Amino acid sequence: MKIDPRTVGAQVRMRTPSLTPLEARVVDTMTGRADLDLTTSLREVAEEAGVSDAMIVKIAKKLGFNGYRDFREALVEYRQSDVASLHAEISPEDSAADIVRKVFNTAVQALEETMSILDMEAFERAAALLHRARNRDFYGLGGSAQIARDVAHKFLRIGLRANVQDDAHMMLMSASLLGPEDVVVAFSHSGATSAVLEATRLARANGARTIALTNYSNAPLAEIADVTLCSTAQGSPLLGENAAARIAQLNIMDAIFVAVAQRDFPTAEARLAKTMRSIGGKRDK
């Protein structure tokens, strides 16, 4: 089956952290070639990177491709796609309009690529687990905690309570009390945040089901979770990749919220009306 060109950039970014520094440098060399096309030879790339032909083939396979030719073709097609053209670096000379366009396009790219790689089976499993859970504990630090708070707020609107823990000690205490009927959603862009990892391991050891939301499919957090949902975003020296990735993760969780509500729509609708009435008088006229 032919690969969707929109997934290529995400596939490379998600697997690059598993490469050695040398291998990552070789990938940067290849992806940084503006003249890369279907005629670019293996020898040419290897000489430019200062490695053997075999090393290039090995790296291509570690990134999920059949070999150099498969990687080269996929990369060329990706560069020709509308999604790849969305990203542009911000420069000191940019006008306000340029900045807005580039920032918005980076977010659009993150959404398009995340949607293209989203594992629908994992998505459905996550929705099912959250719907039937007794307790829903959300773990995250910094920006990840903000995503957790956003989705916890949405769940409360339809009568599903969720606990947000953004402190290492609170996460561990929470995890120590969970059991087989409970679910943890662990938010970590890198998938390697030690406090989140430790608490998620403890929750799973106590029988709780675990869902990871991360930017890297082979991150430590993804390896210990029952279900993994991946976002993806292209890095930028000024914005970083976290900003765009947060937008993608918020959208994943918005979709999860809708999927959970849909499982008992009449009840969700009734509870939504009830919670909205409770704050109706508090809104500014």
TrEMBL record:
Record-linked NCBIfam families: PRK11337.1 (NF008458)
Q: Which CDD domains match?
A: SIS_RpiR (cd05013)
- Molecular-function annotations in GO: carbohydrate derivative binding; DNA binding; DNA-binding transcription factor activity
Protein's GO biological process: carbohydrate derivative metabolic process
InterPro entries, A to Z: Homeodomain-like_sf, HTH_RpiR, RpiR-like, RpiR-like_SIS, SIS_dom, SIS_dom_sf, WH-like_DNA-bd_sf
What's the name of the protein? Answer: HTH-type transcriptional regulator RpiR
Q: Where is the SIS domain?
A: 126-266
Every HTH rpiR-type domain range: 6-82
Highest taxon in the source lineage: Bacteria
User: NAD: present as a keyword of the record?
Assistant: no
UniProtKB keywords: DNA-binding, Transcription, Transcription regulation
Pfam families under this entry?
HTH_6, SIS
